[in-house]
Amino acid sequence: MRLSSLWESFRIAAASLRANKLRTVLTLVGIVVGVAAVIAVVTIIKGLDQTVAATFSSQGSTVFSVSKRPQVILSREEMISFNKRKDVTDDDAGAIMRLCPACWRTGVAANTISNLKHGDQRSDNVRVRGVSLSLFAIEDINVEYGRPWSESEAGATRDVCVVGPDVLDNLFVNVPPEQAIGRELRVGGRAFEIVGVAERLGKLFGFSRDNYVLIPHPTYRKVYGARDSIIVFVQAATAEELEATQDQVRTIMRNRRGKTYADEDDGFAVETQAVFLDLYGKATANIYIVTVGVAAISLVVGGIVVMNIMLVSVTERTKEIGVRKAVGANRRDVLTQFLIEAVLLTAIGGAIGVIIGYGLAFALSKAMGFPLLISVLSAVLGVTVSTVVGIVSGLWPAWKASSLDPIEALRAE
Predict the structure, then answer these.
(1) Global pTM?
(2) Same domain, yes or no, for 24 and 141?
């Protein structure tokens, strides 16, 4: 008997919403915006989390770098201070290789920005990296077509290079990667032979990770000189040995710079990719907080709108309530009817918000080039929260409707 009464209340509530379509749609807006904002941001950040973690963890948990400046600089004062440090040189890298027994692999890299040309095709602002051969293994750089250069080619400072897929797309239009092997391109006006094409990595935050050229470090020094600081990459044998390996490298570098225990500044930076993950985590945590705040405001506004609309509905349907009570409906039946109407309204808004949120997340993920990770939990949470808003905002109107005196209600015009 109770189930049939609930079903009857549901039917009446649904009929009321259908009878006032425009009012229903306008009432849904606040709920839809709040839920859609949460769903879209949560979905986007989950996709970004996976992409960023995969990108910055590509070196694994056993790799760290030694550089003149840290990878993240937060102020102008820090930049000025770090620029006063001594450069990290090839001699420093050689000392680490000789004196660090815990260092499993060691590699070096130097970076610049240059222009590339092939025939009448030109590509500007391309990252050129002079790297040691060991860096392919340390950074897990996969050469998909062709090969890396050999030790003999690096020792002879041959003008050979491995290019990112974007370089082929920009300079060798409609040329299959395998056919680009052996061809020449000009890096800063100097001819280099392509010996390999690296695996495509895609975009991160809308920026391509494939627009680069790798050349042997000795060749880089011959072309660009040895005036700039380099970055030394060190890989420990296991994650458990990482900290001990860092301590050995730090000791070697401090000794080379004449540092004592009293010197707080090492004069160089020893970092893993965790520095980027920490920075990203703090940034996304703030985004979460802001989004939850915006969504909360939207849902509160939506709840107030629902309450007001329900109060208007009670006023408009006073006579209908009186008729229902006159034919046998009790206070609980009337309260249930209006509460179901409020919950149905907000649940529909939550469901629409989930769909719109996923649609926005899908569009942004395609535009920014990161995977879309749909969470069933976030969808359930969105609908659940909107339903709770419906219950809270519908209680007062439902109680008011159920408290109407049937005789006075029947007299209402």
Answers:
(1) 0.66
(2) no
